[in-house]
Each structure stands twice: as structure tokens, then as C-alpha cells.
Design goal:
With 298 residues, this protein is an all-alpha fold. The protein has 2 domains: 87 residues; 208 residues, no CATH class. Helix content is 73%, strand content 2%. The chain contains 12 helices and 2 strands. Strands 1-2 form a two-stranded antiparallel ribbon. Strand 1 and strand 2 form a beta hairpin. It starts with a helix and ends with a helix.
Length: 298
């Protein structure tokens, strides 16, 4: 109860940091899932459930039902779902513990991303129904750029606006991945982790995800209205598992070199600075089955 209380309070406090008018402090609100993952991956599910409910109640008291609902779905429920899957295990015939495979974790994580995207898409379609998109964009730009210093901003926003649900799901996914990885790393360092750390190198994606990605891309090109928007947002979500699989392949290759740590550091530096290498990583993730098959000895 004490662990759940402290974790719930810390998570709620981090989530509400944006209310304090100090520049840069809002950045730390992205660490709101970290206490929940530390509890779940280090202590167990019941304290995590208690911490999630407590933090949701605290946010409800301070910010009202909308913020509390958003926190519950994105942070508390999302963390609990992923930890629940991560801690699944069974004993084999040789009495060894077999943990839930990392590829299944990736599948479930992607499905949850899809649920977040669909919820966001429903809200987007509800808000924009019978509305002139040009007027919405202009009213937004009057707040964002009142002096009209950004050239071509209206045309760019008109293209990006329909992809907001997918982008929200993508950003949420990156935040959850970062916090869960950080929590597992901290717990592993102090030998308090309940399960071994999954590795990127073991990740695989089902063929059905590739078919769904192709269908989403097709809808985004030839679809009309809501179908086009659904295709664009689904494609954003479905590239995530292939990106992570591609990262695993890069890790596998670079770890075979004599300068693995330096090579990985340089790779991530290039990835964060330029972003375009992410497309190369996604293509690697899609082609992984063929790459591994071609490199296997006869």
C-alpha cells in the first residue's frame, strides 16, 4: 500500500507539472508513467493497479474528469496493460520459466496503439464534422502565428491535421517505450526486475501486420473522406513495429563489430539529428525475413 501510494502520488505530480509556469518543467511530465512501470516491473501488478487508480483520482481532483480520463487511458491503463503482458509466464516441462515472448509484447503494444489512434480518430471526426477545415486552420494560425511569419503554414497544416490521431498515438507510444525501457534498466541494475529484459534482436512481426500496412497505405492513396483519413493514421501506427524490428536488426549487426558501443551511439545520434534514417530502419524491419533467410548458411 505504501509503494502504491508513493508511486501514484509521484506519477500524478509529474503529470501535473505543466500547471507550474516554469519554462522547461513541462518536459518532466513525460516521465509520469515511470513510477508506474517501476512498481509494476519491480513489485507486481496489484500495487501498480492501486497506484494507477490513486494517481487518476488525484488528477481528477486537480484537473477534472477530462484530464483524469486522458491520464487513465493513456498512462495508467496503458502501463497496466503492458506490464500485465510482460509478466505473463509459464513453467515448461523442465520446470524452467518461459516468459511472454518479446514479439508478442510488440504485437500487443501495436494493438494498444491502434486503440489510441481509433479513439483519437473518433474525436477528430466528431469535432470536424460539418466544419470548414480552412476556417479551423486559420483560427489556429491566428493563435500560433498572428503575424503570419511562417510561409505556407496553412497548406502544411491542412495536410497534417487529418494525421493528428496517428501522431498522438505515435508520440504516446514513444513515451511509453522510453519509460518502460528506463524502468526495466533501473530495476535490472539493482537486480529488482521481475522478468529478464527483452531484447530488440528477438523481435518479429506477423505477416498480417504487413498486409494491414499495405492496405492502410492503399486506403491513404485511393480512399475518400473518412477512409482516407483512417488509412493515413493506421499507416502511422503500423510502421512502429517494423521500425522496432529494424532497430533490432541494426543492433544485431553492430554488436558483431569490435566497436559496438561507439557504433550504436553514432547511429542513434544520426537518427535523432536527421530523422530520415528512420525510413531506412523501417524498410529493414519489413525486409527482415528475407534478409535473414538470404544470410543463413546452406
Amino acid at each position: 500500500m505504501a509503494i502504491a501510494g508513493v508511486g501514484g502520488f509521484l506519477s500524478a505530480a509529474l503529470s501535473l507539472l505543466y500547471l507550474i509556469p516554469i519554462p522547461g518543467l513541462v518536459f518532466f511530465s513525460y516521465f509520469a508513467p515511470l513510477p508506474l512501470f517501476l512498481i509494476g516491473l519491480g513489485v507486481g501488478l496489484r500495487p501498480l493497479y492501486g497506484a494507477g487508480l490513486l494517481s487518476t483520482a488525484l488528477i481528477f481532483l486537480f484537473e477534472g474528469p477530462f484530464s483524469a480520463g486522458q491520464y487513465f487511458v493513456l498512462t495508467a491503463l496503458g502501463s497496466a496493460f503492458l506490464v500485465n503482458r510482460a509478466l505473463l509466464n509459464r513453467k515448461t516441462s523442465s520446470k524452467e520459466i518461459s516468459w511472454y515472448p518479446s514479439s508478442f509484447l510488440l504485437r500487443d503494444f501495436t494493438l494498444y496503439l491502434g486503440i489510441i489512434m481509433l479513439l483519437g480518430l473518433g474525436v477528430y471526426l466528431y469535432i470536424t464534422q460539418n466544419e470548414d477545415m480552412h476556417k479551423l486552420v486559420k483560427s489556429f494560425l491566428e493563435i500560433l502565428d498572428p503575424n503570419q511569419q511562417i510561409k505556407g503554414a496553412e497548406a502544411l497544416l491542412l495536410k497534417l491535421l487529418p494525421t493528428i490521431p496517428g501522431c498522438i498515438a505515435l508520440i504516446w507510444g514513444m513515451v511509453i517505450l522510453f519509460n518502460s525501457t528506463l524502468a526495466q534498466g533501473i530495476l535490472s541494475h539493482y537486480k529488482k526486475n521481475l522478468r529478464p529484459t527483452p531484447t530488440l534482436e528477438d523481435l518479429e512481426v506477423s505477416w498480417s501486420f504487413l498486409l494491414l500496412l499495405c492496405l492502410s497505405l492503399l486506403l491513404s492513396i485511393i480512399g475518400v473522406g473518412s477512409l482516407e483519413i483512417l488509412g493515413k493514421n493506421a499507416a502511422i501506427v503500423l510502421i512502429v513495429p517494423f521500425f522496432l524490428v529494424g532497430l533490432g536488426l541494426v543492433h544485431k549487426w553492430l554488436r558483431k563489430t569490435s566497436f559496438a558501443m561507439a557504433a550504436l551511439t553514432f547511429f542513434y545520434l544520426i537518427l535523432f539529428l536527421f530523422l530520415w534514417p528512420a525510413l531506412f530502419v523501417i524498410i529493414l524491419g519489413i525486409l527482415k525475413p528475407w534478409i535473414e533467410k538470404s544470410t543463413q548458411p546452406n
